[in-house]
From TrEMBL:
PANTHER family according to UniProt: PHOSPHOLIPID-TRANSPORTING ATPASE ID, PROBABLE PHOSPHOLIPID-TRANSPORTING ATPASE
Organism the protein comes from: Crocodylus porosus
Source lineage: Eukaryota, Metazoa, Chordata, Craniata, Vertebrata
Major subcellular site: membrane
Catalytic residues as annotated in Swiss-Prot or TrEMBL: 384
Name of this protein: Phospholipid-transporting ATPase
Pfam family, one: PhoLip_ATPase_C
Length: 1203
């Protein structure tokens, strides 16, 4: 330890993750008991709003300018700071608890040749640790020895990447040929390695031991967070500890994301502050003028303060006084209220049982609370394909071996021999006792070729059984083999080889044992050329029992086909046709090849490989060049095709999201043919689309074909485009599509299409595409994926969604939201996202309204009090207005409100559009709220002021006094804003009722208590006006004044909303009215077959059409569809059709605002409005017959008027 602690590691002692240099103690918490208060306050006062109110508090402590007590500001400020501090302290407590749990785990450390129990926090770099089966790895360790033969060690990597069993780790020196003794007599060794970094899949180092030099790679490392499995014990040397470990290096903070409403709100707060300054300046000038012209005459009665020597200086002091009084236009509780509402919305997502996957026992999770309303504004979705749209459960479906294709054509759901006798029987593998009974294959010809000894087929399956990283174990005494694969693809290929008689049995660092048709054969494993995203291939070099050296390689077709020997030209052409056929069916393909190596060449190549692996610099580049050298002039064996089925509900989800005007882009590394087929399967692409755009990006190059007369069309992987049905000439555009000079053209081309599928894209390019749309379209983007290759895209988008699937949990850890199936995205956006946006917008509109109505009364009062900065309300009302009287009702609305039920949100995707267009809260809506607040404040002040000018009490005494006026105005204000929030609330719950009426009750209780004799006796200097509230509110004229003020303030709002609802209803208004029974509703059931006729047998998506009672209509796609009917009706009448294209054999009637009248028995042509004439012609029957009205619940009255 003393020797190792002399070295300075990359992570300094000042780093937040580091407790002490080279210590294994981790620290993810931010505070401790001593630092919590100062650090937390410092963080909170970095918020502009908190600093602003602290400044106001300081101003209030200056007697010359403050007409309010200091507690009117400090009470709300302290409350806000306290709530935030409690939340931060709670979060940090759980971080402390987690840290302590991890740091106090026990580990066996070899100290002076004796194993001693040590806490993880006491482990140091250079220590030798013993791990036992099922124990967590304490730090990043170099494997020294193991209980398993050949120094193998098996680990589970769930905490790192969500994987189950990782590849075997090898003993470092001489790849397991020697075992390192661990004790005092062990010869000294030295490890020189890379500096700490966050790359989980890479490690570079060198071990010097016994005068030998050994290469160290990631295969020799046990990383912190892994669990030892299927290994009795192992010893490891601590290389990185604590914050230096790769797990902790990956624990960095994710980039903070802000919503568009947050950014707008910050701008509006600055505008409000500017408005506040303007009001202060106006009132300050008024004070200076009044003091100069009027106040100077009353110096004997109203003398200036000692420090005031002129009217101008009095106006200057008055400016600061009014800044204090009018500060409530910038609400201090706004930000805390927003966070509370967002927290509630996050819990609703977490608690949603309809987004819970029972099969995986995985609920939906909101991993952030700051982006909920942004879910209601998404315009672009960027989706991965494998594991996101598909199940990532791979099935060996077809293959091509030496120019012959095997595998029957079947539907995606398979076929049942009972229902379809023509379907082939699955292949019988009963001859093979080691066959997996779950495996199915429908072409007996392939098995016959194996049994007849076809050498090409044998070599094909031999490659599949050797070229992989799969591990296999027998379960107990049962000969059944249990495979664990790093990827589902490898598992499917090895299982296929197993069933056809080439059974992978076991591996060691130097051998692979395969049972070939019942005979055990052990191959010497000479080298493994690993797969990565750049190489896109994997190779193994083995020596068979006859001593022949052969390289087996499998990989992407674009990579392997160009590395084949020229003698394979004809076979490659046939295989390419098969590959295109497989890709057209949506299958994932790989090409298989081999190469025989001469002994002399291999010896020379292996020596160069050894030297390159020991190179101190550019090691990876040298290895890549050697790999590329040996992987040339290979002989083609064939190709495999694996089926990855769509997840349940993907087509329906994409169809509904498309109706919501959300553009869905699929970004995948697959071939264009595969991606296009998946596009058709999931209904992104439809048969009525004559133009398709598929962008194939190889490296950073993209070739796009644009027709000069039509939109962009199909692009092949090699840049060969076609224009289906195009009449005009085509123009070839070849460019680096994601570079600055071409990115705009690429974006415009892509955005001109209904569907976009980007193929052959790398993880970096996924992020670049998302960033491109963010940069130029200024639209809210959402990225969804399930693998580590989607992390960059997820972090780049405004909202990241992780699918907790079979590719680990790295995507989930980087995401803002997570769930287990793509179909839940529909509910996340259309229900939770739309509601969150609606609630937040209504909350903000009402919040600004009530604060301006409250504050502007002071402004009007200033003109009647000599601009003296006297307040209308008493200081306790000012203190409690935002935190007691009006806080809970608006919070209830912000958390629980909804305009339509969740079922309607799903049935009417067009309800989602207001969020995309930012219609519910923008600068225009903000000014409307401000105008309404100012209007309310004018009436709130001048109506009581006018009434009190001549009003008298019951006993004839003058009613007009300051305290009675203040009570009347305050009571009117509380009642008006309570009635207003009642009007704004669209969904009433018991909580809403309790908070609204409870807040009113609390107001009157506090009001009477503050004017009671009891408080006066306890605090005579604070509560001087005993009985004022009781006496004032006992006067009928006061209640009439309050009632008049309430009616005058509220009636224009009610009238405006009534007229808007009647003359220009929103879609949500119509749907809500339909829900209430005011409309006749006709629903096309999900997948309802149509009657006999041209469209017989087709199915209709889940759409609901509502017809308003007065004849005005709406529909999900265009707001104007009245009802649908089959295309095979007999004709009658001149009708207009929806401008949208017809839906699978259904036409849509569009009477628009006018009533539809058809004389019974009339006939005529049916025409479209705005669509192509060819699509708009269909016969219709006016009454009776097969017109299809009755099944939809609509009826035609005697004069032909449709209701």
């Amino acid at each position: 330890r003393d020797y190792n602690e002399k070295f300075q590691y990359a992570l300094p002692a000042s780093h937040p993750l580091c407790v002490s240099p080279q210590s294994n103690c981790i620290k993810t918490s931010k505070y401790n008991i001593v630092t919590f208060l100062p650090v937390n306050l410092f963080e909170q006062f970095q918020e502009v709003a908190n600093t602003y109110f602290l400044f106001l508090l300081i101003l209030q402590l200056i007697p010359q300018i403050s007409s309010l007590s200091w507690f009117t500001t400090i009470v709300p400020l302290v409350l806000v700071l306290t709530i935030t501090a409690v939340k931060d302290a709670t979060d940090d407590y759980f971080r402390h608890k987690s840290d302590n749990q991890v740091n106090n785990r026990q580990s066996q450390v070899l100290i002076n040749g004796i194993l001693q129990q040590e806490q993880w926090m006491n482990v140091r770099v250079g220590d030798i640790i013993k791990l036992e089966n099922n124990q967590f790895v304490a730090a990043d360790l170099l494997l020294l020895s193991s209980s398993e033969p050949h120094g193998l060690c098996y680990i589970e990597t769930a905490e790192l990447d969500g994987g189950e069993l990782g590849p075997p780790l090898l003993l470092s020196p001489a790849q397991g040929c020697e075992m390192l003794p661990c004790g005092p007599s062990a010869p000294p060794g030295e490890v020189i390695c890379e500096t700490p970094n966050n790359k989980l899949d890479k490690f570079s180092g060198t071990l010097y031991w016994k005068e030998n030099k050994y290469l160290l790679s990631n295969q020799n490392m046990l990383l912190r967070g892994c669990v030892l499995r299927n290994t009795e014990w192992c010893f490891g040397l601590v290389i990185f500890a604590g914050g230096d470990t790769k797990l902790m290096q990956n624990s960095g903070r994710t980039k903070f994301k802000r919503t568009s409403i947050d950014r707008l709100m910050n701008t509006l707060v600055l505008w409000i502050f500017g408005f506040l300054v303007c009001m202060g300046v106006i009132l300050a000038f008024g004070n200076a003028i009044w003091e100069y012209k009027v106040g100077a005459r009353f110096q004997m009665y109203l003398p200036w303060d000692t420090a005031v020597d002129s009217a101008a200086f009095s106006g200057f002091l008055s400016f600061w006084s009014y800044i204090i009084i009018l500060n409530t236009v910038v609400p201090i509780s706004l930000y805390v209220s927003v966070e509370v509402i967002r927290l509630g919305h996050s819990y609703f997502i977490n608690w949603d049982k309809k987004m819970y996957c029972a099969k995986r026992r995985t609920p939906a999770e909101a991993r952030t609370t700051t982006l909920n309303e942004e879910l209601g504004q998404v315009e672009y979705i960027f989706s991965d394909k494998t594991g996101t749209l598909t199940q990532n459960i791979m099935v060996f479906s077809k293959c091509s071996v030496h120019g012959r294709s095997y595998g029957e054509q079947r539907g995606t759901a398979g076929c049942s021999p009972c229902l379809h006798p023509q379907c082939p029987e699955p292949v019988d593998f009963s001859f093979n006792p080691l066959a997996d009974p779950r495996f199915r294959f429908w072409d007996a010809g392939l098995l016959a070729a194996v049994q007849l000894g076809n050498p090409h087929v044998h070599e094909f399956f031999r490659l599949l059984s050797l070229c992989h990283t799969v591990m296999g174990w027998p379960q107990g005494l049962d000969p059944w083999l249990y495979y664990k694969a790093q990827s589902p693809d490898e598992g499917a290929l090895v299982t296929a080889a197993r069933n056809f008689g080439f059974v992978f049995r076991a591996r060691t660092p130097k051998t692979i044992t395969v049972h070939e048709l019942g005979h055990a054969i052990t191959y010497q494993l000479l080298a493994i050329l690993d797969f990565n995203n750049v190489r896109k291939r994997m190779s193994v070099i083995v020596r068979n029992p006859e001593g022949k050296i052969r390289l087996y390689c499998k990989g992407a077709d674009t990579i392997l086909l160009e590395r084949l020997h020229p003698a394979n030209l004809e076979l490659a052409s046939i295989t390419t046709d098969h590959l295109n056929e497989y890709a057209g069916e949506g299958l994932r393909t790989l090409v298989l090849a081999y190469k025989d190596l001469e002994e002399g060449y291999y010896g020379d190549w292996a020596e160069r490989l050894r030297r390159a692996s020991l190179a101190p610099d550019a090691r990876e580049d040298r290895l890549a060049r050697l790999y590329d050298e040996v992987e040339h002039d290979m002989m083609l064996l064939g190709a495999t095709a694996i089926e990855d089925k769509l997840q349940q509900g993907v087509p329906e989800t994409i169809a509904i999201l498309t109706l919501a005007n959300i553009k869905i882009w699929v970004l995948t590394g697959d071939k264009p043919e595969t991606a296009v087929n998946i596009g058709y399967s999931c209904k992104m692409l439809t048969d009525d689309m004559t133009e398709v755009l598929a962008l194939a990006l190889t490296g950073l190059r993209a070739r796009c074909f644009c027709d000069t007369t039509r939109p962009p069309v199909l692009l092949g992987p090699a840049g060969l485009g076609c224009c289906p049905g195009a009449n005009g000439p085509s123009t070839l555009l070849q460019a680096h599509a994601l570079e600055a000079d071409m990115e705009l053209e690429f974006l415009e081309t892509a955005c001109a299409c209904k569907a976009v599928i980007c193929c052959r894209v790398t993880p970096l390019q996924k992020a670049q595409v998302v960033e491109l749309v963010k940069k130029y379209k200024k639209a809210v983007t959402l990225a969804i994926g399930d693998g580590a290759n989607d992390v960059s895209m997820i972090k780049t988008a405004h909202i990241g969604v992780g699918i907790s699937g079979l590719e680990g949990i790295q995507a989930v850890l980087a995401a803002d939201y997570s769930f287990s199936q793509f179909k839940f995205l529909q509910r996340l956006l259309l229900v939770h996202g739309r509601w969150s946006y609606l609630r937040m917008c209504k909350f903000l509109c009402y919040f600004f309204y009530k604060n301006f109505a409250f504050t502007m009364v002071h402004f009007w009062f200033g003109f009647f009090c000599g601009f003296s900065a006297q307040t209308v309300y008493d200081q306790y009302f000012i203190t409690l207005y935002n935190i007691v009287y009006t806080s809970l009702p608006v919070l209830a609305m912000g958390v629980f409100d909804q305009d339509v039920p969740e079922q309607r949100s799903m049935e009417y995707p067009k309800l989602y559009e207001p969020g995309q267009l930012n219609l519910l809260f923008n600068k225009r809506e903000f000014f409307i709220c401000i105008a309404q607040g100012i209007y309310t404040s004018v009436l709130m002040f001048f109506i009581p002021y006018g009434v009190f000018a001549d009003a008298t009490r019951d006993d004839g005494a003058q009613l007009a006094d300051y305290q009675s006026f203040a009570v009347t105005v305050a009571t009117s204000l509380v009642i008006v804003v309570s009635v207003q929030i009642g009007l704004d609330t669209g969904f009433w719950t018991a909580i809403n009722h309790f908070f609204i009426w409870g807040s009113l009750a609390v107001y009157f209780a506090i009001l009477f208590a503050m004017h009671s004799n009891g408080l006066f006796q306890m605090f005579p200097n604070q509560f001087r006006f005993v009985g004022n509230a009781q006496n004032t509110l006992a006067q009928p004229i006061v209640w009439l004044t309050i009632a008049l003020t309430t009616v005058v303030c509220i009636m224009p709002v009610v009238a405006f909303r009534f007229l808007k609802l009647d003359l220009k209803p929103e879609l949500s208004d119509t749907v809500s009215a339909c829900e209430g029974g005011a409309h006749v509703q006709a629903c096309c059931a999900v997948h309802k077959p149509m009657p006999d006729g041209p469209g017989h047998g087709t199915k209709v998506p889940n759409l609901s059409w509502c017809l308003e009672q007065g004849g005005r209509c709406m529909c999900a796609p265009c707001y104007s569809m009245a009802f649908a009917w089959p295309c095979d009706m007999a004709g009658a009448g001149e009708l207009e059709l929806c401008p949208h294209k017809r839906l699978e054999g259904y036409h849509a009637l569009v009477p628009l605002p006018k009533l539809l009248t058809l004389p019974p028995g009339s006939s005529g042509a049916l025409h479209t409005a705005g669509a192509e004439e060819a699509e708009g012609t269909a016969p219709v029957h006016a009454a009776g017959g097969p017109c299809g009205l009755a099944p939809l619940g609509l009826r035609l009255l005697t004069p032909g008027r449709l209701w």
